[in-house]
Amino acid sequence: MSCRVKICGITNLEDALQALGAGADALGFVFYDKSPRYVSPDVANQIVSQLPPFVVPVGLFVNAPDDLVEQVSQGSVRWVIQFHGDETPEQCESYGKPYYKALRMKPDVDVLREASNYPSALAILLDAYKPGIPGGTGETFNWNAIPAQLPKPLILAGGLTPDNVATAVNTVKPYAVDVSGGVERSKGLKDPDRVIQFINGAKHGG
After folding, report:
1. Deepest of 5, 43, 90, 118, by most Cβ within 10 A of its Cβ?
2. Domain that holds residue 79
3. Is the pLDDT at 206 greater than 70, yes or no?
């Protein structure tokens, strides 16, 4: 089965539609105001309202206040939420939306134990760990540290680029891959050629 692709850090409609035209399955919107890829709830919901069917918009939050999550998620029934902070299972479930839980691959993390704490998650996203940076590090991690039998579908993130995504998919065999900085021409703006190369690499091995 072909690997799915999420293009994250979308900030404008042009990049969104280009990514979909290249074969993206999901688009990520960052609601973490310290990120250079931050987008406001209003702008994000305007973009989502213009997306075609069968596309999944994913809202990324890091220890966000309830009112921010509600403001975003009430703008469209289509939202899936990606929790990238220290949210408890109860917090993740409290918004009544399908969600992914991101885990950062710290040296001593017990991935199976952490993943099992979120039985209602649609998927578990594994990202590189860098102190003080909750995501978008641009760095890979040791893929061999990923347990073979995760209880949920795996979304692989962290330092993926058009140059390494085919190797990543062949090595890890994730359900999906997630990229942001690896397909940009500048922070928050996508490079169409890199987006096409990345998706081709993820889905067809190059």
Report:
1. 5
2. 4-204
3. no
